[in-house]
């Protein structure tokens, strides 16, 4: 969707959005329309009952009398007595606006921005949040639908934000805010597009090629093929890919936005482009969903684009391990012992616990090569985390309380919420092997997500580290406030907020 800034309303305008508040207060554009149409806006708000309109809702007036409009939408901000609305609340209002316009099959619409004092929020921040919310909610992956299916897509193609003449709105600041919203939306779309692709199109080599596109944003990209992985002795990652005809890849993406001597922040993603479970094969029902087992890697790619596009003043490295987990005559078997890059020997009890094998080598490589200030990994790692937390929050494991607190705060601010789960020496016993250093699963039906986390912790040393188990949040079978059903790009906005508020 195109996000446009204009100083004047379109010459011919059929759909207009104006802001009101839950107390019945009208923005200047809403008052002007109300005066012109004989009080129609105030009557519409009064008709919502004694409690007034619901905060965050959008009221639709069809062909309102006295106005040359097909559609007038009243977008309701919170009560003024509650103070400035949170950014997330404004983003979600923008999303509801886009959803309503899409349902009306409106291709283009304008939103008349209020006077600077109306929302008790800085004018550029209000614009950025509304625009980001609208763009995020308008996403649709229709690449493989034929033209006659277009009616099933959201039809909103362009949203024009009309600047008021109010002195509190500075055009250059408004344009910068809209650009920031575009950067967020584009980074999220990059992730969603990759995660949504079918696995006959998306496999390690093609995802690596997609990463090379980030060079256009100033990101340095290096791809490690299987020969290089073997030289580095990445035996755990190679054990996952050895059953597939598709060779594995490790992709290193670097954004250098700060001084050359500053240690980078590191984000690591699991990129299993399709997960059959290997020899420990999954049930057939629902296996098609395993195309998104690379969502952690997809998030890192979208995050790197977002940080580079907004010229983040920080050094960042994103590293993803890409593999396809397939059963074949060359596949790793249950009972095999493999040796990770660190020298740790791993007994493979279940080949469907493959993500931690991929990440073990990638975490070790990242830590040894880049000496980062911290590492955060994202992975659709365990079904156990879905049992524990449902699909409302991702699991957070961390060896550093400060980093954990920063991640929790960023999650709450963006709506990509986390819940901290335990680590500790008691859980180390769960992955003790009788014939190797460790095994790749814990005790049956006991703390499965923690078993995965303590496995990964073996490969991070003393570096501050957090693991986000996004198995329940990377994909949604229902619409969310800022995302239609499908790939969610969980973590892109969360980690961007983490960087912006704590490390720039």
From TrEMBL:
Free-text remark on how the cofactor is bound: Binds 2 manganese ions per subunit.
Sequence ranges assigned to domain Cytosol aminopeptidase in this UniProt record: 350-357
Leading EC class: hydrolase
Annotated Mn(2+) 2 binding sites: 270, 275, 293, 354
Cited SUPFAM superfamilies: Macro domain-like (SSF52949), Zn-dependent exopeptidases (SSF53187)
Subcellular localization(s) per the UniProt record: Cytoplasm
Catalytic activity from the UniProt record: Release of an N-terminal amino acid, Xaa-|-Yaa-, in which Xaa is preferably Leu, but may be other amino acids including Pro although not Arg or Lys, and Yaa may be Pro. Amino acid amides and methyl esters are also readily hydrolyzed, but rates on arylamides are exceedingly low; Release of an N-terminal amino acid, preferentially leucine, but not glutamic or aspartic acids
GO biological process, one term: proteolysis
GO cellular component: a single term: cytoplasm
Molecular functions per Gene Ontology: manganese ion binding; metalloaminopeptidase activity
Enzyme Commission numbers on file: 3.4.11.1, 3.4.11.10
Entry annotation: catalytic residues: 282, 356
The entry's keywords: Aminopeptidase, Cytoplasm, Hydrolase, Manganese, Metal-binding, Protease
Pfam families: Peptidase_M17, Peptidase_M17_N
Summary of the function given for this chain in its UniProt record: Presumably involved in the processing and regular turnover of intracellular proteins. Catalyzes the removal of unsubstituted N-terminal amino acids from various peptides.
HAMAP family for this protein: Cytosol_peptidase_M17
Full protein name: Probable cytosol aminopeptidase
Organism from which the protein derives: Arboricoccus pini
Lineage: Bacteria, Pseudomonadati, Pseudomonadota, Alphaproteobacteria, Geminicoccales
């Amino acid at each position: 969707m195109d996000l446009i800034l204009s100083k004047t309303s379109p010459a011919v305008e059929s759909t207009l959005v104006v802001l009101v508040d839950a107390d019945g207060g009208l923005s200047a554009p809403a008052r002007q329309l109300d005066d012109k149409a004989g009080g129609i806006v105030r009557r519409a708000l009064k008709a919502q009952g004694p409690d007034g309109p619901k905060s965050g809702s959008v009221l639709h007036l069809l062909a309102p009398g006295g106005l040359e409009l097909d559609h007038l939408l009243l977008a309701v901000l919170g009560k003024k007595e509650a103070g400035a609305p949170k950014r997330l609340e404004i983003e979600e209002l923008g999303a509801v606006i886009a959803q309503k316009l899409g349902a009306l099959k409106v291709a283009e619409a304008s939103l008349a921005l209020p006077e600077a004092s109306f929302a008790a929020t800085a004018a550029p921040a209000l614009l950025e949040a509304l625009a980001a919310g609208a763009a995020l909610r308008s996403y649709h992956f229709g690449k493989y639908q034929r033209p006659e299916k277009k009616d099933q897509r959201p039809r909103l193609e362009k949203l024009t934000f009309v600047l008021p003449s109010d002195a509190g709105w500075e055009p250059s600041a408004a344009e910068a805010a809209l650009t920031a919203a575009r950067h967020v939306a584009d980074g999220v779309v990059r992730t969603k597009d990759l995660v949504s692709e079918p696995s006959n199109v998306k496999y390690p080599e093609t995802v690596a090629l997609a990463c090379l596109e980030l060079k256009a944003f100033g990101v340095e990209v290096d791809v490690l093929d299987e020969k290089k992985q073997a030289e580095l002795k990445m035996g755990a990652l190679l054990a996952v890919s050895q059953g597939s005809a598709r060779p594995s890849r490790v992709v290193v993406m670097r954004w250098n936005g700060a001084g050359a001597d500053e240690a980078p922040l590191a984000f690591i993603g699991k990129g299993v482009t399709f997960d059959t479970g290997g020899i420990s094969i999954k049930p057939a029902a629902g296996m098609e969903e395993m195309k998104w087992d690379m969502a952690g890697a997809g998030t890192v790619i979208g995050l790197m684009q977002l940080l580079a596009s907004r010229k983040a003043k920080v050094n960042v490295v994103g590293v993803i391990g890409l593999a396809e987990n397939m059963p074949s005559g060359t596949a790793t078997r249950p009972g095999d012992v493999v040796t990770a890059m660190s020298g740790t020997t791993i007994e493979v009890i279940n080949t469907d616990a493959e993500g931690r094998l991929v990440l073990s080598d990638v975490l070790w490589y990242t830590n040894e090569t880049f000496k980062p200030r911290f590492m955060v990994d994202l992975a659709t790692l365990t079904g156990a985390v879905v049992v524990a937390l449902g699909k409302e929050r991702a699991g957070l494991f961390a060896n550093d309380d400060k980093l954990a607190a920063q991640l929790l705060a960023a999650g709450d601010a963006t709506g990509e919420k986390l819940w901290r789960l335990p680590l500790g020496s008691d859980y180390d016993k769960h992955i003790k092997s009788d014939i190797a250093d460790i095994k790749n699963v814990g005790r049956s039906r006991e703390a499965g997500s923690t078993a995965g986390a303590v496995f990964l912790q073996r490969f991070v040393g003393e570096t501050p580290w957090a693991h986000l188990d996004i198995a329940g949040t990377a994909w949604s079978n229902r619409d969310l406030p800022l995302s239609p059903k499908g790939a969610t790009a969980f973590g892109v906005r969360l980690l961007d907020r983490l960087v912006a508020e704590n490390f720039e």
